[in-house]
Write a structure and sequence with these properties.
single chain, mainly beta, globular
Length: 128
């Protein structure tokens, strides 16, 4: 039986997915899946080695881990180079999973590993 905080986190994640998300297409190679994603951002501060700190801002997509099933893989974790397409105002914005330096391109969002936070940068725009 899940503890009370875990139950609350499940409920909150369901509300996020229902009320604070939009459909996006997650793609790896020729395989893709439509998932509900909440938009976020992360600001990384990276030391460039010469004493200067460089800021790098990511557009993040929060996706339920259980929804990210691509092809015949039962569970898919993000990889650098995966693409996410988001349609807004008749344009398709294409983002690639990546992060600066040695940072991972994704993290779990929350203590129960139910939501993935995928860090991306925009790499293109297409007509919708």
């Amino acid at each position: 039986m899940a503890d009370l905080l875990e139950q609350a986190a499940d409920w909150l994640d369901g509300m996020r997915k229902t009320h604070l998300s939009r459909p996006v297409t997650y793609q790896r190679g020729d395989d893709s899946v439509e998932v509900a994603a909440t938009i976020g951002r992360t600001v990384f501060e990276i030391d460039d080695g010469s004493g200067a700190v460089v800021q790098w801002e990511s557009r993040d997509f929060l996706i339920a881990a259980a929804d990210l099933v691509i092809g015949d893989r039962p569970v898919t974790l993000p990889q650098p180079g995966d693409r996410i397409s988001e349609t807004q105002d008749g344009k398709v914005y294409v983002y690639e999973a990546m992060a600066p330096g040695k940072e991972p391109c994704w993290r779990y969002s929350g203590p129960y590993r139910r939501t993935l936070r995928v860090h991306t940068k925009q790499v293109g725009t297409e007509d919708g």
